[in-house]
Amino acid sequence: MELVKNRQKVLLKVIQGLQNKGISSRRAIVKALFLLKEEYFAGNSVKFYSFYPYKQGPFSQLCFSDLRKLNAEGMINDSENMLTDKGIKTANEMDILEADIHHLLGRFNNEKEMLDYVYSKYPSYTVKSQLVSHKKEQEIGFCTIGYEGKDIDSFLNVLIQNKISMVIDVRNNAFSMNFCFIGKKLKQYLNDAEIDYIHMPELGVESEDRANLNSKEDYEKLFLKYRQSLPLKQKYLDTIEKEGNNKRIALLCFEKDVSSCHRREIAKHIRNKGHEVLDL
Fold it and tell me: Per-residue pLDDT tens for 150-197?
């Protein structure tokens, strides 16, 4: 694998820095990357990792995916927490964010100090942690969200920070060019984050109806047709209302802009029933 992605170069340098301090831990790797983004603004100079609250604080699926790739290329060990000789040679040839990484790791004597700091400074990322006790309170209500432009980590973070406990996928076909948002894989990610997933293809828009949408007028014609079809789908709308009255749900589709997505019509229906709907 040619390391064309700068984030992977940063990952190697972080592993090397931790290794030089005698720390070999994937948890420490993730926390160091998290602090690089939050306090050294690594995302401003590198297309970087996103994070969401998980079982041991801030977590990144993309980081773990990159660790697997680096292991497959023989740059890190099978435990995915230390560089091999090949990895050390590669890391020594790089200087990306080197000063920031050195300064960050110099602030902590060990992994526990880093973990304690992250948990203290960023409590919003501990809400799913198994290392901190939490009083769980069930939120209720309705939201909508589009995953366009999001990676799986930033998507999950938005859901968790907004206390979503169920995602209702209103795509006609739960397929995506982004593997993470294909129905079965997405359900796995959501369930791991303690978020339920339901696919309601009956509330989707047929692919032929989405063809040749070139103007605002085209979209408005589509949404008018969709709006007129909703009375035939009442049982699915009733299910959404029932779920939102018992937990905090998010209606999911692709488009970032809700005004360009049919979920806006479902949201209008819910609002007309007297409920507030937040577009995330």
Answer: 999 999 999 999 999 999 999 999 999 999 999 999 999 999 999 999
Q: What are the distances in angstroms from CA 136 to CA 45, 116, 132, 133, 190?
A: 38, 22, 12, 9, 18
Quote the CA–CA distance of 64 and 108 in Å, as a whole number: 23
Cα(77)–Cα(85) distance, rounded to whole angstroms?
Answer: 10
Please state the pTM of the whole predicted model: 0.88
Q: CA 128 to CA 131: how far, in whole Å?
A: 9
Whole-angstrom Cα Rg for the chain? 22
108-111 long-range contacts, CB within 8 A, separation 24+: 110/21, 110/23, 111/23, 111/25, 111/27, 111/28, 111/31
Could you give all domains of the chain from N- to C-terminal order, each with its CATH number?
6-125 (no CATH), 141-279 (3.40.1010)
Which among 146, 141, 158, 151 is positioned nearest to 53, based on CA atoms? 158
Tokens at 242, concatenated = 């029932």
Instruction: Give the pLDDT confidence of 76-117 residue by residue, as tens digits.
Output: 999 999 999 999 999 998 888 999 999 999 999 999 999 999
Beta bridge partners of 197: 167
